[in-house]
Amino acid sequence: MKKIITILLGVAALLLSGCAPASSAGTVDLMADIRPRQIAAEQAAADTTAFALKLLETVYDGGNTVVSPLSAYIALSMVANGAAGGTQKEFESVLGAPAEELNAGCKAFVEALNKSSDGLTLKTANGIWYNTAGDFKADQGFLQTNADYYSAAAVASDFSRQETVDDINNYISDNTNGLIQNMVDQLEPNDVMVLVNTLYFNGKWASPFDPVFTQSEAFVPADGKNVRIPTMCQIYDEARCFETEDARGILLPYVSDRFAYVALLPSGGVADYLAALTPESFKGLIASAADRRVELHIPKYTASISKALNEPLRQMGLQSAFDPLKADFSALGTAKNNIFIDNVLQNAVFKLDEQGTEAAAATKVELRSGSAPAEKDKPVVLRLDRPFIYALMDMQTGAPLFLGVLDNPELSD
């Protein structure tokens, strides 16, 4: 009988209604203790950005695309604690740091995210369930490391019981405010572990769009066939904008300016622009944004995707992990046969309207054992009427929570 580890790597949810302020962090006097955590969080954010841009480039093959790199990054970092040998080195290469640095960086980064306030709630949670009904033996060091760095509680469960499925689904629902439900249909006798990461964000635009000014406007997809799309319009006396020879764009803050929606309109094709975009140039674009008077036209849209990430991750360098003979997950646990990643799947949705942003993502990984300013009366017009790149950004660390490409709003759900 084959053994399967099903790891639900990421569940991310962003809602546009009912902002609840997070708890304020207490005053800390020991700067010597704070600085190392700040450095670790900044490095983790930089590594996340590099991972995010590469993931979007490899996933994008034309059409509407959206991914949640942050949730996947944190969860893959957790799984990396179960890898050894060459497989561990591949995880470290893809994620950008050795395992110990990944753990410390993610811990500090998550703590920074969970301390968000000023009318926004952003929190993460992690959980692990492992099967006690078969011959799989979870490595206690793996479980303890994820508890120490990711606050991931480990639950020993009988996967043959419906109660285990219900427990996992309730955990996901509770930590995403009910946005994602019944993610797990059933567990098979040869499943040995389920790992869940959740990411939850709740907020609205700092300056909502007036629906009165939403009207049908032209949008030109990559295929050149014009479509008419409900398009929001707003004139900002001051909006953070950037412009280079290759692209122009805008940053739209939510109720706390720590988080912003970034729209990036390349001068040429999206694929070529993504191929040339580096973490440094992306960071430079954001840093170059300056206040300008702007008339913005942006489509209302919902983009969704369900995509296997096996091949993109292979292209990024995570190869032996998918090989039944070469994968080394000996630090995760033991089973009769070798453990390897069988499938990585991400479902994501991103909705943008007059009030704000609503988005959700879930990443499932199965491991199997077997063989410049303008004149005030003349605003600069930024019309997002052809394919553009978008991101939901943590402006404090510079890390993207979601990244996507809107190719054709007419094809969105």
From TrEMBL:
<dbReference type="GO" id="GO:0004867">
    <property type="term" value="F:serine-type endopeptidase inhibitor activity"/>
</dbReference>
<comment type="similarity">
    <text>Belongs to the serpin family.</text>
</comment>
<dbReference type="InterPro" id="IPR023795">
    <property type="entry name" value="Serpin_CS"/>
</dbReference>
<dbReference type="InterPro" id="IPR023796">
    <property type="entry name" value="Serpin_dom"/>
</dbReference>
<dbReference type="Pfam" id="PF00079">
    <property type="entry name" value="Serpin"/>
</dbReference>
<feature type="signal peptide">
    <location>
        <begin position="1"/>
        <end position="22"/>
    </location>
</feature>
<feature type="domain" description="Serpin">
    <location>
        <begin position="53"/>
        <end position="409"/>
    </location>
</feature>
<dbReference type="InterPro" id="IPR042178">
    <property type="entry name" value="Serpin_sf_1"/>
</dbReference>
<dbReference type="GO" id="GO:0005615">
    <property type="term" value="C:extracellular space"/>
</dbReference>
<dbReference type="InterPro" id="IPR000215">
    <property type="entry name" value="Serpin_fam"/>
</dbReference>
<dbReference type="InterPro" id="IPR042185">
    <property type="entry name" value="Serpin_sf_2"/>
</dbReference>
<dbReference type="InterPro" id="IPR036186">
    <property type="entry name" value="Serpin_sf"/>
</dbReference>
<protein>
    <submittedName>
        <fullName>Serpin B</fullName>
    </submittedName>
</protein>
<keyword id="KW-0732">Signal</keyword>
